[in-house]
Amino acid sequence: TQLLRQFEPLFPKKFNRFFEPFLGSGAVFFYLSKTRKSHSAFLSDGNQELIDCYFGVRDHLNEIVEQLGWYKTFHSTKQFYQVRKLDPWVLTLPSRAARFIYLNKTCFNGLYRVNKRGEFNVPIGRYKNPPILQERKLRAASLALTGINIKAMDFIELPKYVEAGDFVYFDPPYQPLSATSNFTGYTEVSFDEAKQCELAETCRSLSERGALIMLSNSATRLVRDLYPPHMFRVTQVEAKRSINSKGDSRGLISELVIT
């Protein structure tokens, strides 16, 4: 979200459909849904629980609002860990979505991380009044998602759907800046260098068929090598990072936007 002002000059002026295959918070989708209201979209992510949350907000919002209201009323450290321990796959879709939102709003820095068994394992955050139920924002999100295609899938499946004139925005797990900053645990499958290479090949393939490509990633040598200047335009932007074990390492950091 913080980068949208820097992204705006890089967005294509015209495109057919919009694709966001690493959906996450959907910041670019929601921004474009307000500024370019006529476009259709195809949203996807490899995280099934995240995608189910979007399905829930789109199709079962009232049930989610009711559940979040209950979570807000009885929020405590004990409740957080009880809810975290729940198996999301035995819950109904609306309850699974509400659990996802509750944990996101109350865990440390809103981080999403799972272990190798796919279990959410982020500790509780230190908040006096966490925004567990933001009903106005949820209703706006539900309205924006109405009629939108949403699918749980790996980015490698994109060529089945993308056509010339479509716009694809990629926001993958970033290439680590160092050996000690190698977190890519948004799902139980790590997004390693081989995946970064596979993603670059997908970008080249889609670009060659006439799709419009935009990708965010860290400013590393590997990323620069994967997107050479004779094939892609590389723009450097400055982003603020707040999650770091060292306080003096938080702040502005250079990132790359590839188009």
Describe the structure.
The structure is a single chain. The chain has 259 residues and is of the alpha/beta class. It is 36% helix and 16% strand. The protein contains nine helices and seven strands. The protein has helices at 4-7, 27-35, 48-59, 61-73, 77-85, 93-106, 135-145, 193-208, 221-226; strands spanning 17-20, 40-45, 149-152, 167-170, 212-218, 234-241, 251-258. The protein has a seven-stranded mixed β-sheet with strand order 3-2-1-4-5-7-6, sandwiched between helices. Helix 8 links the parallel strand 4 and strand 5 (212-218). Helix 3 (48-59) packs across helix 6, helix 3 (48-59) packs across helix 7 (135-145) and helix 4 packs across helix 6. The longest helix has 16 residues, at 193-208. The protein is globular and about 55 Å long. 27% of the residues are buried. The mean pLDDT is 91.
What share of residues are in beta strands?
15-25%
Q: Specify Rg, calculated over alpha carbons.
A: 19 Å
Derived structural class: alpha/beta
Mean pLDDT: 91
Main beta sheet strand tally, sense and closure: 7 strands, mixed
Order of helices and strands: HEHEHHHHHEEHEHEE
Q: Please count the helical segments.
A: 9
Shape summary: globular
Helix percent reads: 25-40%
Give the strand order of the largest sheet, numbering strands 1, 2, ... along the chain.
Answer: 3-2-1-4-5-7-6
Q: What is the end-to-end distance?
A: 18 Å
Identify low-pLDDT runs: none
Tell me how many strands there are.
Answer: 7
